[in-house]
Write the structure tokens for this entry.
Amino acid sequence: MNTPVKLVIFDWDGTLFDSVGQIVASLQFAAQQFQQPLTDEDAKSIIGLGLPEVAQRLFPAVPELHADILQSYSEHYVANSTGDQWFAGVANMLEALAQADVKLAVATGKSRKGLDRVLKQTQSMELFAATRAASETRSKPHPLMLEEILTQTGVQAEHAIMVGDTSYDLEMAQNIAMPRIGVSYGVHTPEVLARYHPLAIAEDVADLHQLLLNQVNLKQAV
């Protein structure tokens, strides 16, 4: 990528926030309350989608239970996720990017209520120029949330990078020809992420930090 980088858009769960384990546990708890079978792998596979899409994917045979299952999931997650936090090194990475005059944004499958809660928890609301949650737009991999972030920030797709740990993140960016970086420490494997032709796949936050700084340095050299 040799165009100026003006904006980095991050997925939240599994990319910035160490919450995958609790999401899986809460989904399984909710499934059990309604006698619905759910494996760890199936629960992990839908992380990144909006909640209505999660219910449709995981429980297609019982649409009448979707609202109750999602309510049970949400209540369990909020009650048990107090230990969730940023992955080690994320705070430093975000601060370094902000100091390099790169705009930051979030595009997540969380609800707006859930996103606002964790932004407050991490005291990071002011770090992000824009945030979009699946409850207020189209779910990934549809690119609408990215298009809305680009409109709000005044940045064109070629000057932005999407960072995420799932195929949904990278496919969403690919759909509007936005450069993208995968991270392999979240949900999907490097083999899955590679199908969407990312600029790179980071093994950990330190690797991601360096990859992004390299892109910013390219910006400064242009």
Notes: The first strand starts at residue 7 and ends at 10.
